[in-house]
Amino acid sequence: MNTRSFDVVVLGGGSGGLAASFRAASHGAKVAMLEPAPLGGTCVNVGCVPKKAMWLAADLAERIALASQLGFDVPAAPQVAWPRLLQRRQRYIDGIHASYRQRLQDTGVAHIAQRGRLLDARTVECDDGTRLHAWHIVIATGSHALKPDLPGAALGGVSDDFFALQAAPARVAIVGGGYIAVELAGVLHGLGSEVTLLVRGQQLLSGFDSEMTAQMAENLRQQGIDVRFGCRVQALERHGGGIRALLQGGPADAVFDTVLFATGRAPSTHGLGLETAGVALDGQGAIAVDAFQNTSVPGVFAVGDVTAQAMLTPVAIAAARRLMDRLYGGQPDARLDYDNVPSVVFSHPPLGSVGLSEEQARARFDTVNTYHSRFRPMLQALGDGQVRTLFKMVCAGVDEKVVGIHLLGEGADEILQGFAVALKAGVTRRQMEDTVAIHPTSAEEVVLMR
Ligand code: FAD
Ligand code: NDP
């Protein structure tokens, strides 16, 4: 039997797995990383990166239309050639793959292009039967999209299928009201589809500040997306060349060319040998970890989506780096603080949030004050665009510590990062007010909220 020995074996070469491997290697550890699929995992191949490419294209379409209003000699309703766009998107992703391959080589990480499963707390078996022994094993196998269990569900796709589209389908239904549903709705609308968003609840993005999500729903509708709340899909069936969705709540049925489910993701734990090795799952089917990414088995760790803690790339990366700093970098207390993680929903315009919603703050503190700014950004005003910006700040206690910042508007994705630092550092409303504005920008409104 072929057996090799390492200090650490990492399962998965996505955001968390790559970060763990590179950081461990930088501390001098001998690392093997198993990844059977293209390097970079969900984020690089079927997540953040291709999504942002499509978002940027949809954003450009919107800006070209505004430019036409301002007198530029461009079409008021620009069309994009999808083959060209997809070729550029792939070229960008190929560049990331190449840079990862180079880094793996430079850092001496052994990339094994196979799946692995645990035989025990110190042994991983590859698909070809090779056994890898290690002092430490890191599980970073990510998550996968879920489809609801309903008749005809196989006729619908998930976000992975969105990335396989070669052109904008004429009529698309997106089921769900979370991050992916909102993002795909905006992108497909911007790139030429007629989009219907089927949301089972009464609000988009549950867990976000409801005032912000109400404005988000208004924005989507204003753009021409058909947002239907309280609408459940009962079944899908073939209808000529299309798909008929049988609905509850609203019209009894509707026909679409493409149906995409964006109904959540589940940790990828199947076939990992977790039971054999004794690695426990939590109530949601994620690998249970403590604050230091330790699983129930000493020497076995888990990071990223497989632990279902804030399914975000920078979270997987940060958790992995701190784990390796702790194991190999002489930093025994290193761990990720999962509080106040900022994130952006790439809608049009985007929604950036950090900290607590007003609802969460009121449940936690006796004194809560909120401050707002609502305005039409200058380019929208110049081009007769109707999309408005809503900024909101949530403050708690007598000293008005800022506990939540929510920005829905052009540039929110780029503005939020700096304010996330301030919030994490404990900024108060007074300190925000004391900061001189930068004029004329949208960002200045963050320090001018009333
Ligand atoms: P992954 O990146 O999924 O990597 C897991 C890897 O493990 C995979 O490559 C898989 O092939 C491999 N693997 C699985 N089983 C095994 C095995 N047995 N052996 C070896 N390898 C195995 N996050 C953001 O922060 N910003 C965004 O804009 C954003 N947009 C997104 C858009 C979409 C459509 C989706 C689906 C997700 C998005 N995310 C975004 C979330 C982000 O992609 C994930 O949080 C992140 O990729 C998680 O990293 P990970 O390392 O835990 O898992
Ligand atoms: P979310 O958890 O964000 O949203 C899932 C949505 O599906 C919710 O609206 C939920 O409704 C709805 N839903 C669940 N089950 C059903 C069902 N059976 N029928 C109808 N609707 C259903 O998951 P996503 O799939 O959108 O995204 C997964 C994760 O990926 C996100 O949580 C995020 O962490 C990450 N991500 C991050 C992005 C970013 O940073 N920009 C972009 C994309 C993904 P209800 O609220 O009623 O439960």
The biggest beta sheet reads: 7 strands, mixed
**How many helices does DSSP assign?**
13
Mean pLDDT: 97
The bound ligands are:
flavin-adenine dinucleotide, NADPH dihydro-nicotinamide-adenine-dinucleotide phosphate
CATH architecture of the largest domain: 3-Layer(bba) Sandwich
What would you report as the Rg, rounded to the nearest angstrom?
A: 23 Å
* Highest CATH level, the class of the largest domain: Alpha Beta
Query: Which stretches of 5+ consecutive residues score pLDDT under 50?
Result: none
Overall structural domain count: 3
| CATH fold group of the largest domain | FAD/NAD(P)-binding domain
CATH H-level superfamily title of the largest domain: FAD/NAD(P)-binding domain
Report the β-strand fraction as a percent range. 15-25%
- Shape label: globular
Distance between the termini: 70 Å
